[in-house]
Write a structure and sequence with these properties.
Elements: H1 20-32, H2 34-45, E1 56-57, E2 65-66, E3 71-72, H3 74-78, H4 83-86, E4 90-95, E5 101-105, H5 106-124, E6 131-135, H6 140-152, E7 155-158, H7 165-175, E8 179-183, E9 185-188, E10 191-194, H8 196-202, E11 212-216, E12 230-232, H9 233-236, E13 249-250, E14 254-260, E15 268-273, H10 275-287, E16 296-299, H11 306-318, E17 322-326, H12 337-345, E18 349-352, H13 354-364, E19 378-382, H14 388-398, E20 404-408, E21 442-445, E22 457-462, E23 472-473, H15 477-485, E24 488-490, E25 493-504, E26 510-515, E27 519-522, E28 525-528, H16 529-537, E29 542-552, E30 556-565, H17 571-588, E31 597-600, H18 614-622, H19 637-647
Parallel strand pairs: 4-17, 6-7, 6-8, 7-14, 8-11, 11-12, 16-17, 16-18, 18-19, 19-20, 30-31
Antiparallel strand pairs: 1-2, 3-13, 4-5, 9-10, 14-15, 15-23, 21-22, 22-25, 24-25, 25-26, 27-28, 29-30
The structure holds adenosine-5'-monophosphate-propyl ester.
Adenosine-5'-monophosphate-propyl ester is lined by residues 260, 306-307, 382-385, 407-412, 433, 498-500, 512, 515, 521, 526.
């Protein structure tokens, strides 16, 4: 049993779960009365404007509905209801790239959100159900704008600020957004960078739905102002009233869309509901992060990803906590930046991605020792598997062997954590997500629903609907069914398949083994190989391309592209083409999808029906022996030829 790490009980006061018996008792409640237990939690946690009478509606499965006749407002749940007893409490603590600080209390947040909501209604004619695209840096206004949308029932779609104009345009068009909210730019590593020019570029073609652009002036660099389209947030906000009524929203009204990658070239607009989503965001703050009244919580994600939505904005605020937002990068001005902030703000829960942990470990293994990190109680990781050495450093050096590490497994589609240790209860095995949270029926199964034997890889499925699950893919309900409910069945009924493989060990612990589809995970960012391939194919001289993931020391996975050229004039030409390919990727997607390796090959390994055998390419990229049968390939000799090129 030496590989277990037990929670330090003295670190926790009144945790939600203080033992595995308590965990099992709540699991038992769900086993006995699944819907009733959810209903109890929903009644206890949400301030309903109108209580629900129906719990789960499965009539149109897999389009499940939860609490469908209830009414609430998510911004009210996150802010207004706290004004009774927390109005002077810090809601958001912001630290800018250059160290500037701002503390926003719950009362101030209520004012700012109301002013912004009024601006959206008065100046931009935004109504319930309209889509608002948010393309923003990590500044408090990003959260304020999201909450203002929630306040008036507009559906926001935050697009990560690292995406290119093309990627932004695709998302604006798919959502038929009426308003784009952006900033002139922001600061990174001590220097200004720009966002508004990317919006200008995106809006040049095909974005007729967009009527107005609202610009937050953050770095005050010169930008183009399009007459009758672009308006300054900083100016308009001055004349807005700081009271705005919260729109009564139905439990199932969409709260937001968030685009994520799938196995085709087109990103999916994951649609989340209001009540189910906020219930789970709040509950997981309490269960997994043991959030307490005087805690200060810091999640280092970007609001452009689901982690930022659920664990910077909605979860912490619904729980009435203090959430930290950071504009900069963890390595500027040095690799001690995060630890300095933990010391200064007395952070209790620190939540980040394995990529950041590996980077901080590599760049400053001893940096944490220079700071007082004794406020830390829980260290979280998310987004990709964490390797044991990174886990150990995080545990021993950052956490001083006192903190619980919660390796949280979840996805954009699940809204919040699915599998995670409970910090004061679960004996932890390094780099293991451990157990499904109460209420979540996470099972490792075969496609026919039989349980995968212990120690073998199976499909990670959630076999019962849960409140915070994806409701549909915007504009594409068929794709929703096919993507998530097409592969695995239990008793003949389709169940939610995550796209991940997983394994249960002899102690019942679940370890995630990675994606089973053509999705790769670069620095915790989910990337469809088809998207990257589509970008590379736009190069005039590219005849064919296949992209696979390859293990990377820091990023977890890097992108490896096999490219077949139409004509090849030698090395000089190839170097130029690699540059052009990467420029193409930057234009089509953004710098997050740049290739680490590009190999020029005479052809790709294809079956006789023309399907590219990516598994072979993955093995070659990893320098692993090829175990697949290559005799069925259209040209079996191609494998040796590619290997020779890679090894030369
Ligand atoms: O492959 C899993 C991986 O990240 C994917 C979800 O990516 P995304 O929707 O962008 O959300 C990331 C933040 C929740 C999953 O399908 N993943 C997420 N968490 C873990 C993980 N892989 C291993 N361990 C985790 N803790």
């Amino acid at each position: 049993m030496s590989n277990f790490y037990y929670p330090k009980k003295e670190m926790f006061k009144d945790p939600q779960f203080s033992s595995m018996d308590e965990y099992r008792a709540v699991v038992e409640d769900f086993n006995e009365d699944y819907e009733g237990t959810w209903a109890q939690l929903a009644n206890a946690k949400i301030d309903w404007f109108k209580p629900f009478t129906k719990i789960l509606n499965e009539d149109e499965a897999p389009f499940y509905k939860w609490f469908e006749d209830g009414e609430l407002n998510v911004a009210y749940q996150c802010i207004d209801r706290h004004l009774k007893d927390k109005k002077n409490k810090a809601a958001i603590i912001f630290e800018g790239d250059n160290g500037d600080q701002e503390v926003i209390t719950y009362r101030e947040l209520a004012y700012k959100v109301s002013q912004t909501a009024n601006m959206f209604k008065d100046n931009f004619n935004i109504k319930k159900g309209d889509r608002v695209v948010i393309y923003m840096p990590m500044i408090p206004q990003a959260a304020i704008v999201m909450l203002a949308c929630a306040k008036i029932g507009a559906i926001h779609s935050v697009v990560f600020g690292g995406f290119s104009a093309e990627a932004l345009r695709d998302r604006i068009i798919d959502a038929s957004a009426k308003l784009v909210v952006t900033a002139d730019g922001a600061f990174r590593k001590g220097k200004p960078y720009m966002l508004k020019p990317v919006v200008d570029e995106a809006l040049k073609v095909g974005c007729e739905s967009v009527q107005k652009v609202c610009v937050i002036e953050r770095n005050n660099e010169d930008i183009h102002w399009e007459p009758n389209r672009d308006y300054s947030y900083n100016e308009l906000i001055k004349s807005q009233s700081s009271f705005c009524k919260s729109e009564h929203m139905n439990a199932e009204d969409p709260l937001f869309l968030l685009y994520t990658s799938g196995s085709t070239g087109k990103p999916k607009g994951v649609q989340h509901s209001s009540a189910g989503y906020i219930l789970w965001a709040q509950l997981t703050m309490e269960w997994v992060f043991d959030i307490k009244d005087n805690d200060t919580f810091w999640c280092t994600a970007d609001v452009g990803w689901i982690t930022g939505h659920t664990y910077i904005v909605y979860g912490p605020l619904a729980a009435g906590a203090t959430t930290v937002m950071f504009e900069g990068v963890p390595t500027f001005p040095d690799a001690g930046r995060c630890w300095k902030m933990v010391e200064e703000y007395r952070i209790n829960q620190f939540y980040t991605a394995p990529t950041a942990i590996r980077l901080l470990h590599k760049m400053g293994a001893n940096e944490p020792k220079k700071y007082d990190l004794s406020s830390l109680r829980i260290l979280g990781t998310v987004g990709e598997p964490i390797d044991p050495p990174a886990w150990k450093w995080y545990y021993e050096v950052v956490g001083n062997s006192n903190c619980s590490i919660v390796d949280t497994y979840w996805q954009t589609e699940t809204g919040g954590h699915m599998i995670s240790p409970l910090p004061a209860a679960t004996p932890i095995k390094p780099a293991c997500a451990t157990f499904a949270l109460p209420g979540i029926e996470a099972k490792v199964i075969e496609t026919d629903g039989t349980l995968t034997p212990t120690g073998e890889k199976g499909f990670m499925c959630i076999t019962k609907p849960w409140p915070s699950m994806i409701r549909t893919i915007w504009n594409d309900p068929e794709r929703f069914k096919k993507s998530y409910f097409g592969d695995c069945k239990v008793n003949g009924k389709p169940v939610y398949f995550t796209g991940d493989g997983a394994m249960v060990d002899e102690d019942g612990y679940i370890t995630i083994t990675g994606r089973t589809d053509d999705v790769i995970n670069v620095s915790g960012h989910r990337m469809g190989t088809a998207e990257v391939e589509a970008a590379i194919k736009k190069h005039d001289n590219v005849a064919a391309v296949a992209v696979v993931g390859k293990p990377h020391d820091i990023k977890g996975e890097g992108i490896f592209a096999y490219v077949v050229l139409k004509s090849d004039d030698g090395i000089a030409d190839e170097l130029e083409i690699i540059k052009e390919i990467n420029t193409m990727i930057k234009t089509e997607i953004g710098a997050i999808a740049l290739c680490d390796d590009v190999a020029f090959v005479p052809d790709l390994p294809k079956t006789r029906s023309g399907k590219i055998m990516r598994r072979i390419l993955r093995s070659i990229a990893k320098n692993e022996p090829i175990t697949q049968d290559i005799s069925t390939l259209e040209d079996p000799t191609i494998v040796a030829k590619i290997e020779a090129i890679i090894n030369s």
